[in-house]
Amino acid sequence: MLDLLANPNTQWVLVGTMLLGITSGVLGSFALLRRQSLLGDAMSHAALPGICIAFIIVGSKEMLPLIIGAGITAYIGTYLIQAFVKHSRIKTDTAIGLVLSVFFGIGIVLLTYINRNATGNQSGLNEFIFGQAAAMVRSDVNLFVIAAIALLTITFLLFKEFKIITFDREFAQGLGLPTVFINGLLMTMIVASVVIGLQAVGVVLMAAMLIAPAITAKYWTDRLDVMVILSGVVGGLSGLLGTLISAPISGMPTGPLIIVSSCSLFFLSLIFAPKKGLLTKAIRLMRLRKSTSQNQVMQGIYEFIEETGRNTLTLDDLISVQPLSGLRLQQTIKRLQKRNWLQRSTETYQFTDKGIKEAHQITLNQRMLQMYSMHEMQFAHLPMEKNNWDFLSLPNSEQQPLFELLSKHELFPSVLQERTEDR
Amino acid sequence: MTYTMWIILTASLVSVACSIVGVLLVLRKMAMISDAISHTVLLGLVSAFLITQSLDGLAMFIGAAIAGILTAVFIQLLNSAGVQADAAIGIVFTFLFAIGVILVSMFARDVHLDVEHSIMGELAFIPWTTVDWLGIEGVPQAVWMISIVLVINIILLFVFYKEFKLSSFDPHLAAALGIPVVFLHYLLMGMTSITAVASFDAVGAILVVAMIIAPPATAYLLTEQLGKMFIYSAIIAVLSAISGYYFAAMLDTNIAGMMATMTGLFFLAAFLFSPTHGVVIKKIRNRFTTYSNDEA
User: Mind telling me which residue stretches traverse the membrane in this protein (chain A) (predicted)?
Assistant: First the structure.
């Protein structure tokens, strides 16, 4: 591995793929938030005819003219998509698919034509379809460095403008920003980042370079600035990983490995990201279920005591006072016993001293919630949703009207009434 | 049948089969799903090859169809996990396609599973692989495959025509009436998959996408009736196939690519000059109305 890293060729490829990852990650964030991810797919496919036409005109495989040609047709494709959507009843997805496949078809026609009529210099333009990062040479990387620095600098300088236009175009217009220009500039920059990635990743897979890092970053933050930076990091990291994995294995394509790396990072985030990850969500749901069923059982027993005055419940009583299914009820009862809130004596169950206090609190909170919901307008100022519907922690003065309502409706929990009146 | 006729026949069958599923996909705003499915077919083909170690037609077909349906399922899964729709499509198909390319270059490099071929297609080779079946001799394998798929598509379309129609235009009403919307969704995904697979070998992934999206989109600009939309898009598809072949022969270039180009030209013509939706026609009509208003 270290030998490979010492190889100057590998170094250039490494620098190139990382730069591509960073720029497409950064600009992909904007594309993603503007819901234009698949536009990147259309752009990269639409670039193929441009590459071929540039080659026919220039007659050699020089990177700069090819990239300019690619950029021009990619831009035309993007424009056509927008025109189709704006001026006819064609929907966005249809327009994207149409431009993508037809431009690619034109590209294939030109490519086959060039391959069959190539004079002397066998063109090898095919590598643009699937990418060939290993074919990157120093002059290519130099070009990428310049392009990447330019794109990143513009993004940095115009970050605020891009942000506003991404989230609220009308507001940007209201502020007097030149929205048409900024929109066009952002679009041009996305096209540019797609086009410089083509050689490494190829037309077919380029879309993923825009989408995967951006959506990965979105799982870790809610802030655009953090997301853009993270997305750049993820993109660069995938470029690094893809190149390092593919370099020692001969015939292993770099582009697809870069894509697989970035998609794997996405899948990891999808599952494990804090707050938004599926695992965190599942755990949260499970906890919520547990505490809800616990509260339901506690309140059920409490209200049973309130109604009948009997302190002990048979299992049948327990089943009738709450809505849980058999298995869940058993689990909940076990948990309550473990917390020492519920006692079992042969056939019957009863609260411990600790348990009845807890049940009182739960019931009180639940009934305050009831009052709150009945008179929501009156309590609209209370930030209950933020407080997780915990009425017991409210200051006394806020609780008082709720208590009054409870007394009025004769809903004040009565088993432990004396104690609360002491407070 | 001459060599040319076989190619044109294959291309026409492919284009009609594609345009049938295409109409439904375009109307349901799911056109990009066809792009995703036609790419992931590659992974299905490679996996089928790696499991069976043969290039047997049926195994390949099943493998690819499974890959296609799995693509639709994965996209749906990501979508319900909160990933926005366009990103879900983009990430699923690029990921599966990338794995397909990696598997090909690791295990199947020497086999007839050329990745480039799978994208661009090579119609010119179609007439050379023939299979005799049902006492009919000398019919290319690809023609058999796509004919069967076409028949399946037509039958399913006739059987579920009303259901497809209603669930495409008003999914909520369809669901309320008890039409199995989810079943129809996956049925359509299945149809798209088998169509993509059968067409894939003949014309390549990209032409499949062009044939699925462009002729229906063109027909969408020409008529307001679903029945006519199917017929128009089939006619446009066949016209693109035939004209594409002759232009390709003239320029000595890739046939599938030329056919895709032709579908694009037909669409452009409809976009500009459709009697009801054409941009130019609308402009002319606007001018006339303003003149007559001035006179009045």
Answer: 12-33, 38-58, 64-84, 96-114, 141-159, 171-190, 196-215, 227-249, 255-274
Which of A98, A111, A257, A263 has the highest number of chain B CBs within 10 A, making it the mutation to test binding with B?
A: A98
- Note the pLDDT of residue A231: 93
List the structure tokens of A132.
Answer: 């060939």
Please report residues of A whose CB lies closer than 8 A to that of B106.
Answer: 251-252
Chain A residues close to B251, C-beta within 8 Å: 109, 113
Fold for the domain defined by B3-217: ABC transporter involved in vitamin B12 uptake, BtuC (1.10.3470)
Could you give the 3-state DSSP secondary structure of residue B182? helix
A137, A62 in Cβ contact below 8 A? no
Closest residue on chain B to A33 (Cα)? B84
Average pLDDT, chain A: 83
For testing contact with chain B, the best of A37, A41, A43, A88 (most B CBs within 10 A): A88
Alpha-carbon distance B23 to B35, whole Å? 14
The tokens for A348 are 């019957």
Which of B46, B70, B11 is CA-nearest to residue B192? B70
Q: Dihedral (C-alpha) A198, A203, A205, A209: value to the nearest 10 degrees?
A: 40
Tell me the DSSP string of B55-109.
--HHHHHHHHHHHHHHHHHHHHHHHHTT--HHHHHHHHHHHHHHHHHHHHHHH-T
Residue pair A60/B249 in contact (Cβ under 8 Å)? The answer is no
This model of the complex carries an ipTM of 0.89
> Residue B277 and residue B287: Cα distance in Å, rounded?
15
Per-residue pLDDT tens for B158-196? 888 888 888 888 888 888 888 888 888 888 888 888 888
CA B262, B263, B264: angle at the middle one, nearest 5?
85
Q: Determine, for residues A251 and B115 on separate chains, whether the beta-carbon distance falls below 8 Å.
A: no
Segment A237-261 mean pLDDT: 84
Three-state DSSP at B221 gives: coil
Look at residue B239 in the predicted model and tell me its pLDDT. 92
Alpha carbon A151 to chain centroid, angstroms: 24
Q: What is the mean pLDDT of residues A47-65?
A: 84
The residues facing B253 across adjacent strands are: none
Has residue A10 got a pLDDT over 70?
A: yes
Judged by CB atoms closer than 8 Å, whether chains meet at A252 and B106 is answered as yes
SS3 B288: helix
Residue of A112, A205, A266 lying closest to B253 (CB–CB): A112
Residues of B in contact with A207 (CB under 8 A): 90, 94
Closest CA to A364 of A420, A323, A325: A420
Question: Measured between alpha carbons, how far is A207 from B230 in angstroms, rounded to an integer?
Answer: 31
Q: What's the CA angle centered on B33, arms B31 and B37, to 5 degrees?
A: 130
Q: Are B281 and B273 contacting, i.e. CB atoms less than 8 angstroms apart?
A: yes
Q: What is the domain partition of chain A in residue ranges?
A: 2-274, 280-422
**pLDDT on residue B296:** 47
Whether A208 and B91 lie within 8 Å, measured CB to CB: yes
Q: Distance between alpha carbon A253 and the CA centroid of its chain, in Å?
A: 28
Q: Is the pLDDT of residue B236 over 90?
A: yes
Q: List the CATH code of the domain at A280-422.
A: 1.10.10.10
Q: Domain A2-274 adopts which CATH fold?
A: ABC transporter involved in vitamin B12 uptake, BtuC (1.10.3470)
Q: Which two structure tokens, joined as six digits, stand for A250?
A: 């001969």
pLDDT in tens, B76-102: 888 888 888 888 888 898 899 888 888
pLDDT tens-digit series, residues A301-356: 888 887 787 777 787 777 787 777 778 888 888 888 888 888 887 778 888 878 88
Query: How far off is chain B from A127, nearest CA to CA, in Å?
Result: 10
Measured between beta carbons, the chain B residues lying within 8 angstroms of A96 are 31-32
